[in-house]
Amino acid sequence: MIKVSTRTKKTSFQVEWPEANTVAVVGNFNEWDADATPMKKNRSGVWKADLVLDEGNYEFRYLVNGQEWRNDEEAAATPNVFGSYNSAFSVELPKKKTTRKTTAKKSSKK
User: Fold this and answer.
1) 3-state secondary structure of 70
2) Quick check: 12 and 50 in contact, CB under 8 A?
3) What is the DSSP-derived secondary structure letter of residue 48?
4) What would the pLDDT profile of 33-82 be if each residue is shown by its tens digit?
5) How high is the pLDDT of residue 93?
6) Rounded-to-integer distance, Cα 100 and Cα 88, Å
7) 11 pLDDT higher than 90
8) Considering only CA atoms, which of 94, 91, 30, 8 is closest in space to residue 55?
9) How many other β-carbons are positioned within 10 Å of the β-carbon of residue 25?
């Protein structure tokens, strides 16, 4: 499962694989580096990782026990160059509201 918080700008990854010894989230946001984003397992067997990502479209997979590639079942899927699929998601942050300053014009009358 992926959640993007527009308030904190964090993208949270979460999967429940209690049988796994290690899980890493690997994608185009970390140059597909299997060591860059290891996930942490809680007592219930849920693996979590949080990242702060810029706006954009991202692809990723989970690497389980350093050998098995898995997709996020709740994410969209997109074909990859290996003949399988990557999970995909987008980060869209709200636009900042711009306020216009109005300045009072001074009268040139004397």
Assistant:
1) strand
2) yes
3) E
4) 999 999 999 999 999 999 999 999 999 999 999 999 999 999 999 999 99
5) 76
6) 38
7) yes
8) 91
9) 26
Task: Give me the domains of the chain, ranges plus CATH numbers.
Answer: 2-91 (2.60.40.10)
- The residues facing 78 across adjacent strands are 86
The answer for residues whose C-beta is within 8 angstroms of residue 67's C-beta and 6 or more apart is none
Integer angstrom CA distances of residue 71 from 45, 62, 78, 105: 17, 6, 10, 61
| pTM of structure | 0.82
Amino acid 32: pLDDT:
97
Q: What SS3 state is found at 94? A: coil
Do the bridges between strand 10-16 and strand 23-27 make them parallel or antiparallel, or are there none, so unpaired?
unpaired
Largest Cα–Cα distance in the chain? Answer: 85
Residue type at 34 in one-letter notation? A
pLDDT digits (tens, 9 = 90+) for 60-72: 999 999 999 999 9
